[in-house]
Design brief:
The chain has 313 residues and is an all-alpha fold. It has a domain of 184 residues: MetI-like fold (Orthogonal Bundle). Helices cover 76% and strands 0% of the residues. The protein has 14 helices and no strands. α8 crosses α10 and α12 runs parallel beside α13. The longest helix has 38 residues. The chain is globular, with a radius of gyration of 24 Å. The N and C termini lie close together (7 Å).
Length: 313
């Protein structure tokens, strides 16, 4: 519990540092947003009015404090391009990406953990060799290439799933799962390979421990030894990896959403970058960073569930 309290105490300064880095993005991005928003005529009077309205004529520390004060009140600002509240835009796009990431995460776990366990238990057999070859291919082949090939095979040739588009769960849950199944599989493919290799490594280490030999000497069934003893301890590093990889999935949806024409978080940030829509970019990066922190905190909490010995620390 002390470990959880320590991690919780680190959240506030971490978020503050992230907010400074996020706000500094507008200084690194090329171009003047006031000139972009002023249109092709670029009237100096209009540009000056836009700069004053958006606080761009103020020193950077003043701009940051003004922005941070609004964020602390739950106000993420307004889109400079479309004039809508940024929080409303994120509220529309984030559920799409969360659904896609959650499905990709499920695919990764359902494929990666069993494959890693089988590879470790069947060490130096054809099962182990096959799992390692497939895992290496999953890490090496780019997701966009796998996505294009699956669209041609599954959607165009076989006609099993839609090639692109998105339907919300509230509108039609069956069609929603159909439109996100293929991109979710592609998204979780790389993560499944990584989880498989880490699970295999952790399982091999646990299977050589003395307590495993003792459990077998007691006459316990092999499935009980593997699942209840070896796998439970082997999952500790996998939980850490899973939390980090789930955060990576959120950022990895940018490319997948472009390929499958899914109107999610990734497409929102890409469009905002091209349009110099800084409030949207800043809010998206800040929300993503906050989700990373939350996922890592959840991973620490899961340690206590998986390994009770850590509860005394």
């Amino acid at each position: 519990m002390i470990r959880l309290a320590t991690r919780l105490a680190q959240v506030v300064p971490t978020l503050l540092l992230i907010s400074i880095m996020v706000f500094g993005l507008q200084e690194l991005m090329p171009g003047d947003p006031a000139i972009v928003l002023a249109g092709p005529l670029r009237d100096p009077i209009v540009v000056a009015q836009i700069r004053a309205k958006l606080w761009l004529d103020q020193p950077i520390p003043v701009q940051y404090l003004h922005w941070l004060g609004n964020v602390l009140q739950g106000d993420l600002g307004y889109s400079w391009r479309v004039g809508q509240p940024v929080a409303h835009m994120i509220g529309q796009k984030l559920p799409v990406t969360l659904q896609l990431s959650a499905m990709g995460f499920c695919f990764a776990l359902l494929i990666g953990i069993p494959a890693g366990v089988i590879s470790a238990v069947k060490r130096d057999t054809v099962w182990d060799w096959t799992a390692n070859v497939i895992g290496l291919m999953g890490i090496s082949v780019p997701n966009f290439w796998i996505g294009i090939l699956l669209i041609l095979l599954v959607s165009v040739d076989l006609g099993w799933l839609p090639p692109s588009g998105y339907v919300s769960l509230s509108e039609n849950w069956r069609m929603s799962l159909a439109t996100t199944a293929l991109p979710a599989f592609v998204l979780g493919n790389n993560m499944a390979s990584t989880i498989m290799r880490h699970t295999r490594s952790a399982m091999l280490s646990e299977l050589d421990q003395d307590y495993i030999r003792t459990a077998r000497a007691k006459g316990l069934r092999e499935s009980t030894v593997i699942v209840r003893h070896a796998l439970r301890n082997a999952l500790i590093p996998v939980v850490t990896l899973g939390a980090l990889e789930l955060g990576t999935l959120l950022s990895g949806t940018v490319l997948i959403e472009q390929i499958f024409s899914i109107p999610g978080f990734g497409k929102l940030v890409v469009d905002s970058v091209f349009n110099r829509d800084y409030p949207v970019v800043q809010a998206v990066v800040l929300v993503t960073a906050a989700m990373y922190i939350v996922l890592n905190f959840i991973a620490d909490a899961l340690y206590l569930v998986i390994n009770p010995r850590l509860r005394v620390a």
